[in-house]
Amino acid sequence: MNKIAFGQYYHTDSFIHRLDPRTKIISLILMMVFIFVIPKNQFVVLGFSVALLLAVVFLTKVPLIRYLKSLKQIMFLLIFSFFFQALFNNSGDLLLTINQNISIANIALGVVLIVLYLFFRKYLPLKFLWLILLVISIIYIFQYPIIGQSLKSYQLKVYRDGVVTGFFIIVRIMLLIVFSSILTLTTKPTDLNNALEWLMRPLEWVKIPTSVLAMMISISLRFIPTLFLETERILKAQASRGVDFKEGKVKAKITQIISLLIPMFIISFKRAFDLADAMEARGYIPGAKRTKLALLKFGLSDYFVLIFALGIVIGLIVLRVNHAL
Amino acid sequence: MGINFRNVSFRYNKKASKPTLDNITLDIFKKSEFITILGHTGSGKSTLVQHMNALLLPDEGEVEIFGKHITKKYKDKLKDTRKKVGLVFQFPEYQLFEETVLKDIMFGPKNFGLSDQEAKSKAIEACKQVGLGEELWTRSPFTLSGGQMRRVAIAGILASEPDVLILDEPTVGLDPVGKKELLNLLEDIRINTGKTIVIISHDMNVVAKHATRVIVLNDGKVVYNGPKLPLFSDLERLRSFNLDLPDSARIAIELKEKGLIDFDELPLALEELRKHLKLNLQGAGYE
Q: Which one of A1, A228, A241, A265 would you mutate to disrupt binding with B, by most B Cβ within 10 Å of its Cβ?
């Protein structure tokens, strides 16, 4: 039947794909620390981390579009935080002053633009670019009182520090997202789960059943596509009984949801009980010591990557502590 | 009037080179037929029946369902169509959700616009049709046995009074008695109400006993569409479709090879085989 791709894993063979998943997780954490230790105004270090990121992205052999897709989801957040910083942070040199005059005609024109944007949003490609355009054009309109007296005027001031901070925030978030994408794009969910289980091992000392948790995660991952197919089947079965899932009335909606939820609950429980029986029949005992089919093993390249990541983080911290940066 | 497929093609994965349904032209009339759809796993049977009540829309071609022309771009409401063509999915017991059996059966008719009162009388009628006793009506459907739950689900479709009733492997998972009862029930519905019944089945004995027409699918194409006798008489072609003979036909052929009985027309049902046996054995002096 129609295949449901779960997770982001992109199958290909590359140096990064072949790394131990634990190496990738630990390096990701180290890189996160690195990104947040970068001091403000240090464009050299920021440039270094961007270059490093691009090098790793190139090494993964994953098409660039996959990374851009993950960035697209947070585009709004990025633009918002940049504008917020640029407009409200007022220290450093004054770069730009924009006069804003509010009049009734201006407000009306702004509202018209917003309504037009909301209306055409569905049909527009590159939504966020249009959103930026909208914000800029509204700021532009408010510069001139078109008709009538301006009711109130104020100034938008852009300072150098605001722009720099905004720029740093954007680049940091982008770095974070792309580094995380490298992990999820090059690591299978099962490998990721195995690595997490290994990394959570220390928690066993405080009596947290990590192997059971890992088993739960892998079972959930395994059953997402199955339950998805079941949902589709129940949807169709209820549609055959005259449920119109496009119908808008609240009362109809409630019945629709109930007619889908209850069967799904029952199917999930039935599957869970069946699976529990099957697991017990094959000798699974929760919490008992288990061996692994796929053993994780650190190779030479893993040590190299870990030492490199640890090296740059420690290096940066040492430089900061000594006020060299 | 009925369901007419005109050069219908469909693929689940729009990029796949091989379509699930490949240029299908087919007519299903509303005239008391008992149609069985055969074909091995993945031949497109379930996909085909989901086109019959427009749960899936064809990528190419057109399905005409009781005067409505369903194509790729069809956007109108489909409630009417789904009322006229009732589709019972595989393991339909999983679609039950109401508090009581009767309420669950009323769900369909109510969705199709009947009042509570009307829906209730239709539900009671459907219960009687499928043989659900009055003591079960107020029970929760989840306390019933598997066979009973399936009857409730089928009654849920019957209560909407469809003109064509389609069932996707209705006997899977039922015990032999339940299976026999269900098939006899479908046969009764066909004879008493003149509805056309379409079932997907893997069981050649069911085909041999009940079908008035057989449709064989292979790799998304209709490779056979006609009465059952010519299909089972041509052994070579039957093998090429990955299909088997019904039990009675197999026994009859073996007995003929041993020279014990003789026949011109292959006996498909047990009763016919019995007749032949009686005739031949009496002739040979057996009682």
A: A241
Segments in B167-269 forming alpha helices (H): 176-193, 204-210, 228-233, 235-240, 247-257
Q: Is B82 on the interface with A (CB under 8 A)?
A: yes
Q: Is the ipTM of this complex over 0.85?
A: yes
User: Which helix (H) or strand (E) is B277 found in, with range?
Assistant: helix B270-283
pLDDT tens, residue by residue, A80-110: 888 888 888 777 788 778 777 777 778 888 8
The rounded distance, in Å, linking the Cα atoms of A75 and A69 is 10
Starting at the edge strand that comes first in sequence, how are the strands of the sheet with B60-65 ordered?
A: B21-29, B2-10, B60-65, B68-70
> Does B89 contact A233 at a Cβ distance shorter than 8 Å?
yes
Q: Are residues B197 and B276 in the same domain?
A: no
Inspect the interface and report whether the beta carbons of A239 and B82 lie closer than 8 Å.
yes
Domain total in chain A: 1
pLDDT confidence bin for A1, thresholds 50/70/90: very low
Structural domain for B41, as ranges: 2-242
* pLDDT tens profile A311-323: 999 999 998 888 7
For residues B256 and B152, membership in a common domain is answered with no
Q: Both B173 and B285 in a single domain?
A: no
CATH number at residue B75: 3.40.50.300
Q: pTM of this prediction?
A: 0.72
Is residue A225 in some structural domain? yes
Q: Which domain holds residue A259?
A: 216-286
Residues A191-195 have a mean pLDDT of 87
